[in-house]
Automatic annotation (TrEMBL):
Annotated protein name in UniProt: Guanidinium exporter
Membrane topology, record value: Multi-pass membrane protein
Main location: membrane
GO BP annotations, alphabetical order: xenobiotic detoxification by transmembrane export across the plasma membrane
Organism whose genome encodes this protein: Paradevosia shaoguanensis
Subcellular location: Cell membrane
Keywords, in A-Z order: Cell membrane, Membrane, Transmembrane, Transmembrane helix, Transport
Coiled-coil spans in chain: none
């Protein structure tokens, strides 16, 4: 169950990163409110996952989901640039996440 909480926390991290961008430096009310609520939810779920998962594993997976997810949202929703180097970097992050999961009992 800890892995489910961790993935949910990572998804919420993607949401808060996106809505933080949309908040325009916390000057827009709704995106700011969504950012704060999803940050709290993300941290809360991460803390629950950390009850059983090792710190290094949980934190690495959480940040990796957020990083790669934000990268994908940036490209698909915000029209950010796609380059081979950026895609390779994302692939390497995902590879590291898979290795971290496989290394955790």
């Amino acid at each position: 169950m800890a892995w489910v909480y961790l993935v949910a926390a990572g998804i919420l991290e993607i949401v808060w990163a996106f809505t933080m961008k949309q908040s325009n430096g916390f000057t827009r009310l709704m995106p700011t409110a969504i950012t704060i609520v999803t940050m709290i939810g993300s941290f809360g779920l991460l803390s629950v996952a950390m009850r059983t998962l090792p710190l290094g594993t949980a934190y690495t997976i959480w940040t990796g989901i957020g990083a790669v997810g934000a990268f994908v949202v940036g490209i698909m929703v915000l029209g950010e640039a796609v380059s081979p180097m950026r895609v390779l970097a994302a692939v390497l992050i995902v590879s590291g996440l898979v290795m971290m999961k496989l290394a955790t009992s």
